[in-house]
Design a protein that fits this description.
Layout: H1 2-11, H2 13-32, H3 38-74, H4 91-145, H5 150-175, E1 182-186, H6 187-205, E2 208-212, E3 218-222, H7 223-239, E4 245-251, E5 254-259, H8 279-285, H9 292-302, E6 306-312, E7 316-322
C-alpha cells in the first residue's frame, strides 16, 4: 500500500499544484485589499477537508485499479482477461481497453492455430511412423529368416529412404517456405530423372514402361516440388501394380500417369487426397499412411497445378497433373 502513495500523488500533481496556486492567489488578493483573513481561513479549511475526502476516495479506487491491472498482466493471454479490466474513467481508457481486447482476441486465435498445427503435425507423424514400419519390419523378417536377398533388402531400404524424404518434404511444406522457383521445364527431362530413380523396381517387378509425347513438351513449374509429386504418383503406381505396364504421356499441357494395377474402389476415389485416408487398398495391404497423395495435392496447389484421378477396380488407375498455362501468382 505504501508503494502506491508516491505514484498516486505524482500522477495527480497537476491537481494539487493547481490547488496550491489558487490558495496562494487568494491569500495574495486578501493581502492586497487588506481584507480580514478569518473568512479566508474558514474557506481554506473547508476546501482542504473536501480535498482530503477526494484524495481518500481516489486513493481507494486507485489501489483497487492497480490490483486489477496486476491480475490482468498475470493473465494477459487468457480468454477471460476481458472481464478483469477495471472500469474506464475516461473515453481514452475506453479506446485503449478496446485495443487491448482486440489484440488479446487475435493473440488467442493465433495461439489456438499454433496448438492445432502442432497437434496435426504430431498426428501426421504417427501416420508416417505406421507407414515406415512396413519396410523396417520386412527388413527385420529377412534378417531373422536368414534370407539375405540383396535385391529385396535393397528394395526395402529404398522404401525407407523414400518415406524419410517424404517426411522431410512434409515438414518443409508445413513451414511454408517461400522458396518456389517457377521456370520453364522440359517434361521429358524431369520425368526421366524420376524414372532413373525407380528403374530398380521396374526390373524387380518386371513392369513395362511406355512413354508418349514427352519429347519437346515444356511446363511452368518448380522442379524440386514437381519431382516430389511425380515420385509420389509413380511410387504408388509401382506399388499397386502387380504386373502389366505403366504409361506416362504428355497431352495438352497435362501429364498423365496410367497403370494397370489393382485399381481404386469408386467409393474411395473422392477421398484419396484427404490426409490420413488410405482407402480399402491401403488398409488391405497395411502399407499406406494417407500422406503421400494428400501432400502431393497440397504442393500441386502451391505451384499452381491441379491433380485428378480416375480408376477402375482390376483395370488400373490414371492420375493427371494439369499444369498452368501462365506463371502462377504467389
Amino acid at each position: 500500500m505504501k508503494k502506491l502513495i508516491v505514484p498516486f500523488f505524482y500522477e495527480r500533481r497537476v491537481l494539487y499544484l493547481l490547488y496550491l496556486l489558487i490558495i496562494g492567489l487568494a491569500v495574495f488578493t486578501f493581502y492586497l485589499y487588506s481584507l480580514p483573513l478569518q473568512a479566508f481561513w474558514d474557506s481554506f479549511l473547508f476546501t482542504v477537508f473536501l480535498l482530503g475526502v477526494y484524495s481518500l476516495v481516489s486513493f481507494y479506487r486507485y489501489a483497487r485499479r492497480q490490483a486489477q491491472l496486476k491480475i490482468l498482466t498475470e493473465n494477459l493471454v487468457q480468454s477471460e482477461a476481458k472481464a478483469l479490466f477495471p472500469r474506464a474513467d475516461t473515453q481514452a481508457e475506453v479506446y485503449y481497453q478496446e485495443i487491448i481486447r482486440q489484440l488479446l482476441a487475435e493473440t488467442n486465435i493465433e495461439r489456438s492455430k499454433g496448438q492445432k498445427a502442432k497437434q496435426e503435425i504430431f498426428d501426421d507423424f504417427g501416420l508416417w511412423m505406421h507407414q515406415i514400419k512396413t519396410p523396417v519390419a520386412a527388413l527385420d523378417l529377412l534378417i531373422q529368416s536368414g534370407n539375405s536377398n540383396p535385391q529385396q533388402m535393397k528394395a526395402e531400404l529404398f522404401k525407407v529412404n523414400e518415406y524419410l524424404q517424404m517426411m522431410l518434404n512434409y515438414l518443409r511444406q508445413n513451414l511454408d517456405n517461400q522458396d518456389l522457383m517457377i521456370e520453364e521445364l522440359s517434361i521429358d527431362t524431369v520425368v526421366k530423372e524420376v524414372l532413373r530413380k525407380y528403374a530398380f523396381f521396374f526390373s524387380q517387378k518386371n513392369l513395362q514402361l511406355e512413354l508418349k509425347q514427352l519429347e519437346g513438351g515444356t511446363v511452368l513449374s518448380d522442379k524440386k516440388w514437381l519431382i516430389f509429386i511425380l515420385e509420389q504418383l509413380l511410387f504408388n503406381a509401382i506399388k499397386y501394380t502387380i504386373d502389366g505396364k505403366i504409361t506416362i504421356s504428355f497431352i495438352d499441357n497435362q501429364l498423365i500417369i496410367q497403370d494397370t494395377g489393382i485399381g481404386i474402389r469408386s467409393e474411395d476415389l473422392p477421398r484419396v487426397f484427404e490426409k490420413g485416408y488410405t482407402g480399402y487398398n491401403g488398409r488391405e495391404q497395411q502399407r499406406a499412411s494417407g500422406l503421400g497423395l494428400y501432400l502431393s495435392r497440397q504442393i500441386a496447389q502451391k505451384i499452381g497445378c491441379r491433380l485428378a484421378i480416375e480408376s477402375t477396380i482390376g483395370q488400373g488407375t490414371t492420375v493427371s497433373i494439369f499444369f498452368p498455362k501462365r506463371r502462377p501468382m504467389n
